[in-house]
Design a protein that fits this description.
heterodimer, A: alpha/beta, Nitrile Hydratase, Chain A, two-stranded parallel sheet, 10 helices, B: 2 helices, globular
């Protein structure tokens, strides 16, 4: 029998035992890591976006070093790949995809939506991004360039969407509540509810 | 170190046809010319890490490609869309 034929649960128990026996990772450390992964959710990224809309200094930090920006808001980033943030403007709209697998900024957005890992999304996003986002009802002005970000290596990417008009007086909490995971992937744009 | 704006060509190499391989350079940009946007940092080469081999640290770049040039078709939407891809330096060579 090869490792590929092994029963998953038994294999997991065996690997965890070996990690503990060799002093690589204790059961408590593994439990903590699982808890951090389970707690991560798009609300964390949304809080970062709302703060970047309000505070120019935070926006600058977020665009230059996403990992530090996330840590400064109490989001655990230790052991996570570096976070890059790309800002949508009046000229450029970003759309994130991982054509090779399913790289996703889990530390700030949580588990990816099911379609992010689908072969259809991964294949179509790099060739017909406007056609793909139109299926979410997202229409961009024709002169806006779509920049597809293929997440192929060590970084994880999230989008800083544009702040919707009419939200100038809103609090950070109210702003964060309208930012959805799709807005930070680029398939949708935030709309004041 | 490649400077932002440098024109680079992705090597037209296909290691996956020679031996088991783990490659982070998408097939659709191999052999194509793009433009360095910025140096992202230096990381251990995942092509070796995946096989638990000693991995050299390599420079990683964000490289921009025009979408119309990749797919050799008119851009489907008029605007000049493009693609940003993370590519390690050993896949890049200077382009005219």
């Amino acid at each position: 029998m090869t490792v590929l034929d092994a029963d998953g649960e038994r294999l997991l128990v065996a690997v965890r035992s070996v990690l503990a026996a060799k002093g690589i990772a204790t059961p408590a450390e593994i439990a903590e890591r699982i808890a951090i992964t389970d707690r991560a959710n798009p609300g964390q990224g949304a809080r970062m976006v709302a703060r970047a809309w309000i505070e120019p200094e935070f926006r600058a930090l977020m665009l230059s070093d996403g990992t530090r920006a996330a840590e400064s808001m109490g989001i655990p980033m230790r052991g996570a790949p570096p976070l890059g943030v790309l800002e949508n403007t009046a000229e450029v709209h970003h759309l994130v995809v991982c054509t090779l697998c399913s790289c996703y900024p889990r530390a700030v957005l949580g588990y990816p939506p099911f379609w992010f890992k689908s072969a259809a999304y991964r294949a179509r996003a790099v060739r017909d991004p406007r056609g793909v986002i139109a299926e979410w009802g997202t229409e961009l002005p024709p002169d806006v360039k779509v920049r597809v970000v293929d997440s192929t290596a060590d970084y994880r990417w999230m989008v800083l969407p544009r702040r919707p008009a009419g939200t100038e007086t809103w609090s950070a909490e109210r702003l964060a509540a309208i930012v959805r995971e799709g807005d930070m992937i680029g398939v949708t744009v935030p709309t004041p509810g | 170190m490649l400077a932002p704006g440098a024109r680079v060509r992705v090597r037209s190499d296909w290691p996956e046809f020679r031996a088991p391989a783990h490659i982070r350079t998408p097939h659709y940009v191999r052999g194509l010319t793009g433009e360095v946007v910025r140096h992202l940092g230096d990381f251990a080469n995942p092509e070796d890490l995946a096989f638990a081999r000693p991995a050299a640290v390599r420079a990683l770049y964000h490289v921009r490609f025009d979408m119309a040039a990749i797919w050799q078709e008119a851009d489907r939407n008029g605007a000049a869309n493009d693609v940003l891809v993370e590519i390690f330096d050993h896949w890049l060579e200077a382009a005219p």
